[in-house]
Amino acid sequence: MKKRKILLVDDDTDFTEMIKFHLEIKNDYEVTVLSESKKVMETLHAFQPDVILLDLLMPGIGGIEICEMLDKDPLGLSTPVIIISGLNKNVDKLKAYKLGIADYLVKPVDGNDIINAIEKALRAKFQQD
Known about the structure:
By secondary structure, this protein is an alpha/beta fold. It has a single domain, classed as Rossmann fold. 48% of the residues lie in helices and 18% in strands. The protein contains 6 helices and 5 strands; from the N terminus they run βαβαβααβαβα. The protein has helices spanning 13-26, 40-47, 63-71, 74-77, 90-98, 111-128, and strands spanning 5-9, 30-34, 51-54, 81-85, 103-106. A 5-stranded parallel β-sheet has the order 2-1-3-4-5, sandwiched between helices. α1 links the parallel β1 and β2 (30-34).
């Protein structure tokens, strides 16, 4: 079985290192980390992830704007997005869900919660295909 690919977009290096370790070592995912949101679309096409984990508060282009960009791209539309953010405001969640995200997790988040969200998003994605 091929490794599932995860694109992790977050500028918090402590968080990304912990999550990358958890996903790669404990769960055998292939993870690419981006700390700059401006490279998301380029990386989407080069890496072709199965799921995108995305922080809302990024320097430059924010998470909502990235979701809007993904919605205009065929590969972006078919790739589930899971928001992982320190923001726990209903207005942010509502905007994100309206853009079609798979899930919204609030930091601090447990690695197992992320795995569960990824597995749920993958099941939904492959039921649609």
